[in-house]
Design a protein that fits this description.
Elements (H helix, E strand, L loop, with lengths): L4 H11 L3 H10 L4 H18 L7 E8 L5 E9 L2 H4 L2 H16 L5 H5 L2 E2 L2 E2 H12 L4 E9 L2 E6 L5 E8 L7 H14 L11 H17 L7 H16 L14 H8 L4 E9 L2
Antiparallel strand pairs: 1-2, 2-5, 3-4, 6-7, 7-8
Helix pairs in contact: 1-2, 2-3, 3-7, 9-10
Length: 276
């Protein structure tokens, strides 16, 4: 049967799919809009499956902070190419997903996937978008933190995001300090808030590296443990947030900087997500 341009445009408005895809779907469905929509979805599923092994090294990071400033969420939506990542519709979709996650108090990616999205689930909508765009799309990270004050930071390229949780704020305005610390986290990529937050595996690895370095330098075997522990302290100083030298003022550490802003102010937690 003949498919009119008006019908094609109507299906395009309904689904957001390309004109040719809509025309083919309507032709295959003999003009039945519901069947045509199903055909387009099936195309999305097929494309998604065929691209399942593709790497998603591009994308965007988006954040939200609650009105009272005590809860922050961060989501990264990834794709295959920078061209798609910079697409306005892709960015809008990432923000829609995060808004839905926040309004439904989602704690995991799986919970976001299960949310209704019009007459689909969010997981199905992502598959549909995959078919429309022609690239693998996925929610690669979703994190939530809570603190006395949560401050977000998105790097200018949109591919790196940070949430930092501050405690002992004493009712002070700590937005600027939080932004400074968030930018420090973005630039220096600390492994933990302080040495107590460093996992045992990392500690063991650093000790073994320290021992081997000392051994290569010809140090006596009985001295290796002591030397390695000394190197571990240096690792803590360079790689844990509160002990790091503040990049804006190298005369003080992050801990000293925060304490100078407001007595007792410190970081309880942070999240850093980078794409690529």
């Amino acid at each position: 049967m003949a498919i009119t341009a008006q019908e094609v445009n109507k299906l395009r408005q309904m689904t957001g799919s390309g004109m040719m895809d809509c025309k083919k779907a309507l032709t295959e469905a003999d003009g039945d809009f519901e069947k045509a929509v199903d055909i387009l979805r099936k195309k999305g599923q097929k494309v998604s499956a065929s691209r399942a092994d593709r790497e998603t090294k591009e994308g965007v990071v988006v954040t939200r902070v609650s009105e009272d400033g005590t809860k922050g969420t961060l989501l990264s939506l990834t794709c295959e190419t920078d061209f798609v990542a910079k697409n306005e519709e892709f960015g809008a979709f990432a923000n829609t997903l995060l808004d839905m996650a926040v309004s439904n108090n989602c704690a995991t990616v799986e919970e976001i996937h299960a949310l209704p999205f019009a007459d689909l689930t969010t997981a199905e909508k992502i598959i549909e978008m995959t078919g429309k765009i022609g690239e693998k799309i996925e929610i690669s990270h979703y994190v939530v933190i809570k603190a006395d004050a949560v401050v977000p930071y998105i790097h200018s390229n949109g591919k790196l995001g940070v949430l930092v949780g501050l405690v002992n704020t004493s009712g002070s305005n700590v937005e600027e300090a939080g932004k400074d610390v968030a930018m420090q986290i973005a630039a220096m990529n600390p492994v933990a808030v302080d040495k107590d937050g460093v996992d045992a595996t990392t500690i063991e690895r650093e000790i073994e590296i320290g021992k081997e370095q000392a051994r290569q330098e010809g140090k006596p075997e009985e001295m290796l443990e002591k030397i390695a522990l000394g190197k571990l302290q240096k690792f803590y100083k360079e790689s844990t947030l509160l002990s790091q030298v503040f990049v804006k003022d190298n005369s003080k550490t992050i801990a000293q900087y925060l304490d100078g802003v407001s007595k007792g102010l410190t970081v309880s937690t942070f999240k850093r997500i980078s794409i690529g």
